[in-house]
Amino acid sequence: MKRQRTALVIGGGIGGLTAAVALERRGWAVTVVERAAALEPVGAGIALAPNAQRALDTIEVGDAVRAMADWQGAGEFRLPGGRRLARTDNAAAVRRFGGPVAIAHRAELVALLAARLPASAVRTGATATLGDPGDPRPGGRPARVRISVPDQTVPHRPVPDDPHLVELSADLVVAADGIHSAVRRAVFPRHPAPRYAGFTAWRFVVPAPDGVRPVAHETWGRGSLWGTVPLAGGRIYAYATAAVPAGGRAVDDERAELLRRFGAWHQPVPALLDAVGPAEVLRNDVYSAAAPPPAFHHGRVALLGDAVHPMTPNLGQGGCQAVEDAVVLAHEAGPDADLGAALAAYTRQRLPRTMEVVRRAERVGRLTTWRSRPACALRAGLMAATARLTPDLTLRALDGIADWRPPTGTYAAGARGTRTAALREEQE
User: Fold this and answer.
1) What is the pLDDT of residue 420?
2) CA nearest 318: which of 287, 283, 280?
3) In this model, does residue 414 exceed pLDDT 50?
4) Cα separation of 184 and 309, whole Å?
5) pLDDT in tens, 141-151
6) 127 neighbors 178 (Cβ within 8 angstroms)
């Protein structure tokens, strides 16, 4: 009987879990190792553009994601005083990219993906360290990973003199361990670390306050930005950025910091800040890839998502690109594929595409850090003029990105994206 190939996924976020589901459907025996005690109960939303939805369709998750998402008819760009600069809508996205943008809660998407895996496949509260990247040639040595686990119930090779560590071997290691990836540092020690993008971000989710009209909007101020996006179930996802030095923290709490920076902006910003508790606000510095990596693989290790191409959130593509990575990797790493050739093909397809998305997102991110009054007035005038002359032009930044389609013929037939098709018919 042919031996089943084994894959070890380091990181239980959206990219790692998508890779685990996709590989499991391709016949791999998959184990996911996540450092946190639970799978990403993060109070934040995620925008899933049509490219990500089509990728999720290949593993027959797309329709479930669309069913949990909030569907916005329109979105607005505003100034802090409330003046509307531009308007866009999902009908424009359908015309341009073949589908609308779905907004979902990150924790719910993580739970949906995890439910597609055997319960025994996901191990939380475990820290993984790459020992040997292995040799992907036929008959080559497997990759080896040392894992600190709370118990010893997983098949393992004990590490001498350290009862808290076990050693696992795998035919493939998928590194989805985030922006500050330890695996990336191990396989590419001379590659520059991600650089601070010049701004930090705050995020939270709250029930919609009484009287708040749930309309998606993004408001651009001097060196700062606020976004409000309705979620399903009467909730609102809010995010904000500001051009501040890296590593900062609020003197009192992050809600007070947001009040100081955004409390005088137009509604519903003050109402949302009144509705959130200090402990519910997440703060993270924003990083972007400093340079293209040598490859997206090394030995039997494949890197994906923020571990290899961190990007600013300004195009809403960080999670989307991780999902793309995952399905392309699984497509190439078929049951009978030569793993070395499969990983080389993965790099060829993903490296140039994702680095272009990194560059585009970074360009938009720099616009949000402008502080001078003349520069911000010019920016506002250009946005307003563009909206009047060519309404769909605000979507141009996603051309060649949101219209991406995954490799075909990879998975079982049946994932047709029926919800996307129905929405397209409704809006045309």
Assistant:
1) 37
2) 287
3) no
4) 11
5) 999 999 986 65
6) no
